[in-house]
Amino acid sequence: xxxPYYITESKRMCKASxxxxxxxxxPKNFLSEVEFAEKRKSYSEILSVVxxxxxxxxxxxxxxxxxxxxxxxxGYLLEIEGDETIKSTxxxxxxxxxxxxxxxxxxxxxxxxxxxxxxxxxxxxxQHYHTFLHNIACYGAAFHYTDxxxxxxxxxxxxPIAFQNPLFLTMLTQAVDSIExxxxxxKQNKKLNIMNQIMLSRTxxxxxxxxxxxxxxxxxxxxxxxxxxxxxxxxxxxxxxxxITGDYFKAVLxxxxxxxxxxxxxxxxxxxxxxxxxxxxxxxxxxxxxxxFGQFRDISDRYRLxxxxxxxxxxxxxxxxxxxxxxNKELAIIIQGLKAGQNRTMALLYMDLDxxxxxxxxxxxxxxDELITKVSERxxxxxxxxxxxxxxxxxxxxxxxxxxxxxxxPTKKAEEILNLFHEPFQVGKKExxxxxxxxxxxxxAYPVSMERFMVYADNAMYQxxxxxxxxxxxxxxxxxxxxxxxxxxxxxxxxxxxxxxxxLHYQPQIHNQTGKLIGFEALIRWQHPRLGxxxxxxxxxxxxxxxxxxxxxxxxxxxxxxxxxxxxxAGMVPVKxxxxxxxxxxxxxxxxxxxxxxxxxxxxxxxxxxxxxxEYMAMEYEYSILVLNKLKSLGIGIxxxxxxxxxxxxxxxxxxxxxxxxxxxxxxSELMNDPNDAIIVNxxxxxxxxxxxxxxxxxxxxxxxxxxLTNHQCDIxxxxxxxxxxxxxxxxxxxxxx
Length: 738
Hints:
The structure is a single chain. The protein is α+β, with helices and mostly antiparallel strands. It has four domains: 5-194, Beta-Lactamase (2-Layer Sandwich), CATH 3.30.450.40; 203-298, PAS domain (Beta-Lactamase), CATH 3.30.450; 311-477, Reverse transcriptase/Diguanylate cyclase domain (Alpha-Beta Plaits, 2-Layer Sandwich), CATH 3.30.70.270; 501-736, EAL domain (TIM Barrel). It has 27 helices and 26 strands. Strands 18-19-21-22-23-24-25-26 form an eight-stranded mixed beta barrel. Strands 2-1-5-4-3 form a five-stranded antiparallel beta sheet, with helices on both faces. The protein has a five-stranded antiparallel beta sheet with strand order 7-6-10-9-8, sandwiched between helices. The termini are far apart.
């Protein structure tokens, strides 16, 4: 076989220079330790790419004694990987990391020839000039930046001559081709990142760029608009001086931190509040930090819209007082704290106007509304520092008293309220006289649920009315009896799972445009052996308090999936079935694996299973998004239940993998009577659709409600207008036959 010309020419030059082919020709030049470390650092990205593909090559040839050698563009060896025996052999000849391979020093070598040639080469046995290399077969190729043909280095493989094979050259060629493609891609990405940093003026975000010392080098037009600071007043100043972003940039530049979605608020020069989401990150060039990049996204309008939405949801339209939803939320938070061991006092004063219906019927609703307004103004005048007054609806008000030190504070407050009604109210040209009946409930030393606590106050108020009105009554009488009933029910509840006493009823969900059934919500019932069929309101809170809720929730998931699969196998058109997750169940570590096991065991397509979570669960943002993403990866649907009554945040709506938003029935029930509820419902639908999520309205009971929802593009409805929750047999009689 004819020897390639470049090998012949190399050997001729070796001979002409006086090299003895029978003597070992060792490298003569080496990089110092510092120079070698610097060289490898400058080649770090290149070496990471080359090592990745050379290791793939070594793994594919496992069992073959080969060595992979990587050099820089000058011939300095930067990497030697592979067979340890060959490594020790070449080290005897002075070949080691940091040594320089040139034709003048080491003769005809695969490293120097690879760097000279524009194509892969092979150097087999006697093709080497020196006889000590005649038992070695070598293959080599240079690699470049292919966009400008800039030589970067070479990759060579060496082996005993007995293992030579032309296929090695092909494999090396393919590896080098992959290396060059990856290096070019990274180079282009780096250029793209630099271009992105240059295109500052075209963004709708405020952009700030600093050097590595914090000196502001760029402040774009939108940043000037947001902050009302001119570019000239900012450029050249140290960003650390900024009271708004100085600490963030300091963390970025001194600690390499990345800031994401930090909400910042400040006043512009006109005194208006500006709300922005702020991001900041270091800017690197060749692994060296050269500055920092920050951007502001103005969310002031969105923030004000969210504040208005939350205000409408939690305040009464007529009096601007907090409403029932607000009180429920506050009570839930306080009771949760009390159960966790917080030392606080709390009382409820439930107040109802006496003979308000007579005034309304005789003088008209406008007089009634004005009287309610006047009453609320007078009641506000007696509020203590820790007191909250809310209108519960109609002529009912509630005082939430907290953190009082004197045990008779609630009753003294009740007396003070009653005294407010001694003077008449001027409504229009009339003086109207009315009184009030008040029920007082003081939170006991043992835990009770919010609903029960409200019932205590409500019952006491009705006792005040029954005793002649214009008085207050403190709830004390039936506490022990109620506790005994609850304890008895708890004992029965612990047996209910073992005795298979729970059943599921299914409420149809109807598509508003087509009128077709598209799903069911599975709702638990307790077939109590003594008390009959109990709704969840009778036992769910108790299950949450005694820790049984997770076991019950798992039973519901298993039963709903199993039943849905049975219906599909029986010929029913496949539809989704949704179940409610409790907070405790959502926080259990095995939720994901349990759902996955149930779907696998029942063979139900995950597409037909939906879990419903509440807004309260979304408050633990980091945990929630992790769990929801894992649930979503199973292929199931996710719905936010009772939307608008809890922790309403645009942030979780945007980032959580939610498919459906369920409008709480409290908004639907007053849809045709309260303009605020209509506004809120329309806003929820618009918001959901803008975020590409479907909307389900629950609690639909009238055609007028359905027409409103349909006209405002609500996707799905459920409620007694269509059907109450039905047992399995009735579902099958209606839908399986169809």
